[in-house]
Design brief:
Blueprint: E1 24-27, H1 38-46, E2 51-54, H2 71-89, E3 94-99, H3 101-112, E4 119-125, H4 143-158, H5 164-169, E5 181-186, E6 206-210, H6 222-227, H7 229-240
Parallel strand pairs: 1-2, 1-3, 3-4, 4-5, 5-6
Helix pairs in contact: 2-3
InterPro entries: AB_hydrolase_fold, Lipase_EstA/Esterase_EstB
Protein name: Lipase (Class 2)
GO molecular function, one term: lipase activity
């Protein structure tokens, strides 16, 4: 395998090194886009990783607002991008780093769409695998409003714990699958993923990290945790642990 260092972030000519054999793909959260990882992606590239990001789940008429459309379709978009990265880099598998909804879409791709064969590790930051009680419950909406909400932002509805999407993702009792590593980085002050256990995976191949462990003065909420240097340091350690 080539040991040429990364030529830069989102560089499809990058060839993984023997130290970092898996390209890293960042997946943004709801309402965000690929630009959210410009700085962190560049840092990974400078450290020798092949690092990438994409925008998924955006309407054509609002292309910079990602993560709002049907998460099944978003997972398919991620799958196509993974295939593209593997083809260009020659790597056998990728590592995925998902922020909030990014972890959800990644988990669905891995479990339901066959991604387990080509994903080595999923790192979730403020992750969500089982929905949140703060989501809109589709069944409680009148039919006309439900249809309108679906067209505008299906992902909002799919985050309801009792949605068909969440039921499928957690069939068999967990969103995780064997053969893939999972690292989950959470804050106890997360006020979006409720309850907190929705972002945890109770399986042998998962590591659940709480930002406040060893740093009680940390009060980062859902978004602050995603943006924090502390969470990124945990992400780097999780990725580098395979080297």
């Amino acid at each position: 395998m080539s040991t040429r260092p990364s030529a830069g972030y989102n560089d499809l000519t990058c060839k993984p090194s023997s130290r970092h054999p898996y390209p890293v793909i960042f997946l943004h959260g709801m309402g965000s886009n690929k630009n959210a990882y410009t700085k962190k992606g560049a840092r990974l590239a400078a450290a020798g990783y092949c690092a990438y990001s994409l925008t998924y789940g955006a309407h054509s008429w609002l292309p910079k607002l990602g993560g709002v459309t049907d998460m099944v379709a978003s997972a398919k978009t991620v799958g196509s991008f993974v295939a593209k990265v593997l083809e260009h880099t020659g790597a056998a598998k990728v590592d995925l780093v998902g922020a909030s909804e990014g972890s959800t879409v990644a988990a669905y791709y891995i479990k339901v769409l066959g991604g387990a064969a080509v994903v080595n590790h999923l790192v979730g930051v403020s992750p969500n695998y089982a929905g949140t009680t703060k989501a809109i419950r589709a069944r409680a909406l009148p039919s006309p409003l439900r249809k309108l909400a679906w067209r505008a932002g299906a992902a909002f509805l799919q985050f309801s714990p009792d949605s068909d999407f969440m039921r499928e993702l957690n069939s068999g009792g967990t969103a995780a699958v064997d053969g893939v590593r999972y690292t989950n980085i959470q804050s106890t002050y997360d006020d979006v993923v409720v309850p907190l256990r929705s972002g945890q995976l109770d399986v042998p191949n998962a590591t659940n990290i709480i930002l406040q462990d060893g740093c009680e003065e940390n009060h980062d909420g859902h978004i602050a945790a995603i943006l924090s240097e502390r969470a990124f340091e945990f992400t780097l350690k999780a990725l580098d642990a395979e080297s």
